[in-house]
Amino acid sequence: MSNHVPEAERDANARALERYIESFTTSLSERGYCAPVVGQKRAMVACFARWMGRRRIAAYKIDEATVSAFLAHLSRRGSLIGNRRFTLMAFLDHLRDQAVTDRPKPVRDDSPPTLLLQNYQTYLRKEQGLTEETADNYLRFVSPLVRTCLLGSATGTVSSDIGVQQVRDYLLKSTRTLRPTTAQLVATALRSFLRFLVLRGEIAVDLV
């Protein structure tokens, strides 16, 4: 199938992407990323947009395959990928929030990490009385840790080797590019999750 896009539509597409790049940049600042990191991420997305323009790819066609194709292009040029995938996937999610491109149809996920996160979300809303927005932020902050500390068992048992050093390493890695106030929110979310694990009986040692 041809990906030809008329010039007028191509120009409109470029202007639209620029607008969404700006709104994406604003969202990064609001989420607590420091100015230098915001600038780096904006440059990554702008490079992606220029590549799309050269290939006449319309904004509404952006998906995971588009991101992978761009990263493959960079790899062939010998460019360091670094955290580009993470940034571009965040941009893709931003475009989907803005209804620029469709989200894939949800697939039922009964994996142990997902089930544990769902139980944690219920705990935050029903037992702790947190708002939906606050609960969602907590989930976003702790989700990467959950997906690295669980065994692949059907019960979703937390790995026995999770300890102080693992938690400390995760906290330092996940907050090094954030403003101090946002880093404090990550620490608060992590303490909440560790307390939940103790109450649930997933870990025997209180790591809070």
Q: Can you walk through the features of this model?
A:
The chain is mainly alpha-helical and about 210 residues long. The protein has 2 domains: about 5-95, no CATH class; about 110-200, DNA polymerase, domain 1 (Orthogonal Bundle). Helices cover about 65% and strands about 0% of the residues. It has 8 helices and no strands. It has helices at about 5-30, 35-55, 65-75, 85-95, 110-125, 130-150, 165-175, 180-200. Helix 5 (about 110-125) runs antiparallel to helix 6. The longest helix has 24 residues, at about 5-30. The N and C termini lie far apart (about 55 Å). About 20% of the residues are buried. The model is unreliable at about 150-155 (pLDDT under 50).
Please give the share of residues in helix. Answer: 55-70%
- Distance N terminus to C terminus? 55 Å
Which of globular, elongated, flat, extended, rod-shaped describes the shape? Answer: elongated
Structural class, judged by helices and strands? mainly alpha
Number of helices: 8
Task: Tally the structural domains.
Answer: 2
Poorly predicted ranges: 151-156
Order of helices and strands: HHHHHHHH
Approximate strand percentage = under 5%
Note the main sheet.
none
Based on DSSP secondary structure assignment, what is the total number of beta strands? Answer: 0
Average of the residue pLDDT scores: 78
- Rg, Å, rounded: 20 Å
Main attributes of the structure:
0% strand; mainly alpha; elongated; DNA polymerase, domain 1; 8 helices; 66% helix; 208 residues
Provide the fold topology.
Layout: H1 7-30, H2 35-54, H3 64-76, H4 84-97, H5 112-127, H6 132-149, H7 164-175, H8 180-200
Helix pairs in contact: 1-2, 2-4, 3-4, 5-6, 6-8
